[in-house]
Amino acid sequence: MGTWGKRGDMLVHEHDPYNAEPPLGALAGEPVTSADTFYSRNHGPVPEVDPATWRLRVDGLVERELELTLEDLRAGFAERTLPATLQCAGNRRAGLVAVRDIPGEDPWRGGATSTATWTGVALADVLAAAGLREGAEHVCFSAPDVSQVADPPQPYGGSVPVAKATSPEVLLAWGMNGEPLPRVHGAPVRVVVPGWIGARSVKWLTGITVTAEPSDNYFQATAYRVLPPEADPRAAGPGDGISLGPAALSCELLDPADGSPVPCGRAVLTGYAYAGQDRAVARVDVSTDGGATWAQAEVDAPDGPWTWQHWRLRTDLAPGDVDVVARAWDSTGALQPEHAADLWNPKGYGNTSWARARLAVAPPAP
Amino acid sequence: MGTWGKRGDMLVHEHDPYNAEPPLGALAGEPVTSADTFYSRNHGPVPEVDPATWRLRVDGLVERELELTLEDLRAGFAERTLPATLQCAGNRRAGLVAVRDIPGEDPWRGGATSTATWTGVALADVLAAAGLREGAEHVCFSAPDVSQVADPPQPYGGSVPVAKATSPEVLLAWGMNGEPLPRVHGAPVRVVVPGWIGARSVKWLTGITVTAEPSDNYFQATAYRVLPPEADPRAAGPGDGISLGPAALSCELLDPADGSPVPCGRAVLTGYAYAGQDRAVARVDVSTDGGATWAQAEVDAPDGPWTWQHWRLRTDLAPGDVDVVARAWDSTGALQPEHAADLWNPKGYGNTSWARARLAVAPPAP
Hints:
The first copy, chain A, is mainly beta. Chain A has helices at residues 24-27, 70-76, 93-97, 123-130, 162-165, 218-221, 340-343, and strands at residues 11-15, 18-21, 56-60, 66-68, 79-87, 113-122, 138-147, 154-161, 171-176, 179-180, 190-192, 207-211, 225-226, 242-243, 250-255, 261-263, 265-274, 281-287, 295-296, 298-299, 309-317, 320-330, 355-362. In chain A, a hairpin with a 2-residue loop joins strand 9 (171-176) and strand 10 (179-180).
């Protein structure tokens, strides 16, 4: 397997399944992430699906089962385009691994967060065409990529509650940043569930099943759950831990990079913060002395209700090691927790601790 | 002015305006709070409103202005009853005051959080009867209690966005725990906005005005905002800081009380956690060694989507000082921030830091 991104600078955690994130600097200052820079999280081989023969089956607790071609989707429903951030639940796992090892899981840095403008149709419209029957509570997504990581091995899947599935922002998308959706990002059609962990935005979608209960797929029932720290992840079964859905408030420093040498004097520190479903980033505090004192960053307005927000702090850096810390507040007044150690969990999800980096600030040129 | 609660053991912060909370132990293990134990937060004198002459005016961006009597409300709309927690945005301010003084604001402990079963009609139904006009974005509440705390002095008021105002859980309530709403809690009719800070649940409601912008009332535009720590609250103007709305995740130890002597041996530590709008409490960790080690408390299911959740930990306490710490996780995997110092703000809102108490555990009887 090769790399799927065109950019040679992707940080590839695994080639098969292909799991890669951009270096943090590639995200800095960019409200939209190009498709070849957008992180790629896969649980099995990247399938090759022929758009001409692709069919989407809609079944379960519906009035009418549907089998839709790509042309049916395009012609039968209103096209919608919206910007949305996707974030892997394992984003910033490296910070948890630094506390205690997490075998078998990729040590994502903060690059497993990216934003694109998605084009497709509203899942709500397709569900309305099928008609929900009484007892419909969840909408399950299925795909052809068989994961050997699952126990037992099975195709990737997941579900969201009907209330989210019928919200207008949830798309069945065939377009990304104005171009056809690339194969590695789920062509011909993927789900995009804005505001929720990336795991629910199922790629290479082939089936939608309306059910009374959440999906029993391994990646819904057993994985993507915050287990208590003392739990043995190999012994974890369906229903254990906190099932992740809406994304929790997070923040990352993008530029300068941790450990990088920077000149002394005027500097701009930049990053992103992301508040997930129903929240916005209201404030970002940045410290250049390890948290002793704080300044408020300039925070960009989100590009609609479903995107990250970039921030920047203009400051002066004195020579020596500079410990940068960044923390975000959301629109409810909630602040991120400080320490990765408090968030450590056996599968390494949800590292929403404060962002930290050490910069080596050079003395002035003689 | 006397006290308004019948219980002599209310902690009265001020008599006029009347501001009082129950001792934490009075809330312990009680899913529903009795009306005379329920905290009382007022900004002006408690008005006496004659239910016979009371009128509710509905105006602004509506198709039809309404003027409703209590009988119109009762007869014209479907009665609804639901349990909901209210929490003052100043709940646990004492923990912030301990970091740095906050002049002019009451040092609420964790008792400014209570739960009742409310009966009334859905605000959504009343708004539907009035008909929302194009551009309707906010629903403002007005009341007759004039506050001298406001700048300039003015009747209490506030607003919520239309999306929340038209959600079925927002009530115009005349009943509390199956009895008529007591005068101190807003008789004859108050708003109940479940999942949001208590400040939006306006008491002694007399007016509903649908607008394009949030209320310009002092308590919406200027107060109930998290200002940056360096801000001068006397200089704060409309729009400054983070305007609070949905409640943020919080947790409190209710029993045993901080500083109290307890016998050594088997003990049950109990408290509440509350996740606010669109979230539930998913886990509560409790430490009896100041945070060095943690155990998971048993957490009750909420009584519907809008209530706190009580928790308990059965443990053994050894003689000596025992530092209890409790922290909650919500259903998105978010964890509370640790330190009150990080949350400190000039008006003292939103102390959602971990709960802490020191118990004096007695040696065994000789």
